[in-house]
Input
Amino acid sequence: MARKSSLLIVVFLILCLAIAPGQQTSAKEADGFELSVAEVGDRIDVTVTLNNAKDMYAYDLVLKFDHVRLAYEDAKLSLPGFAVKPKLSRGELRLAHTRVGETPGRNGMLELAVVGFQRIRGGDTYVKLESVRLVDSKLEKEDLAPNSNMILRSSVVAKLPADVAGHWSEEAVREAMELGFVTGFGDGTFRPDEPVTRLEATVLLGKALLALGGKVPALSFTDVEAIPLWGLPYVAEAVRAGWLNGYDDETFRGAKPIARQEFATIIARAMNASATGNAAVLSAFGDRHLLAPWAAGPTALAVERGILQGQGDGLLNPAATTTRAEAVTMILRLLASGG
Output
C-alpha cells in the first residue's frame, strides 16, 4: 500500500510540475488526439480521445474554451484510476489522471474525458485541446501540443442593421447581436453614432453580463416612475451590485446621455468593487485633468484593462457623450477580458 501511495505521489509530481496552462514552450505537435461534440439544447459535451496510446499510465491535459459563450459545468474522466479535482481558471480547464499500482500503461484508442459546458450566449464558439503531458509505466514523460480545435457553429445568424454596414463598429455590433445583448430599432436601424442614455447603457451591460437571475430590490430613486418596465430589473440589479449610483438629489435620470467617464466607471465597478486602477496609465492622455475625482480611479482601471481607449485625437474626452457603438465596443472588451 505504501508503495502504491509513493508511486501516486511520484506520478502526480511528474504531471503537476509539467504543464502551466497557457505556457507550453517545448512541447512537440502531436497527432492522435481528437475532440468530438454532442449538443442537446444548450448543453454541450466534448469528448477527448487519444487514438494511438502507447503505454499511457497517466495524463495531464489543458482545455481552452470560449468563456464568453460557454460555462463549464462538469467533467467525467473515463478511465479507471485516480484523478484530482478539475482545476478551472478563466477559459481554461486542467484535468489529471493516473493508473494505480505497478501495472502497464494502456494502449490503443482511449476516451480520456467527457467535459460538459452550457452555452450561455449565441455566436460561434470553440473548445481547444491546448496541451497534454503523458507519462508511461516507466514514469517517462512526454509533452505534447495537440492540434485539436473544435469550432461550434451557432444557429443564430444576426441580421445586421443597414446603417452599420461599413461603420467602424460593424463587427462589434454583429458580435453583440449574436451574443444577444443588442438589438436594433423597429425601423431596422442601429444608430451607432447616437448617444446612449444612462438607462440604455445599464440595460446593455446587464444583459451582456447575464446579471438577472435573482430577486432584485425596489428602487428609491425619486424618478423611478420614469424608468420603463423593460429596464427596471436591470437598473435595480446594477444598484444592488454596486455598479450604479443615483445623483445627489436621489434621481436616476435614465434619459440622460451617459458620459464616457460615467460609463467607464460603471464598467469598472462591474469588474471590481474597489474600481481603482493604476493612475499612471492616465499619463498618456493630455486631458486627464478633466476627469471628475470620482471617475479617476475607475477610469484608470478601464484604461488599464483595455476597455476604454483614447479617441482619434489622443484624448480621453471624459465628459463627451458615449455613443451606442462605443458602448457596445466597451462591453465586448469587458467580456473578452473576463470581467
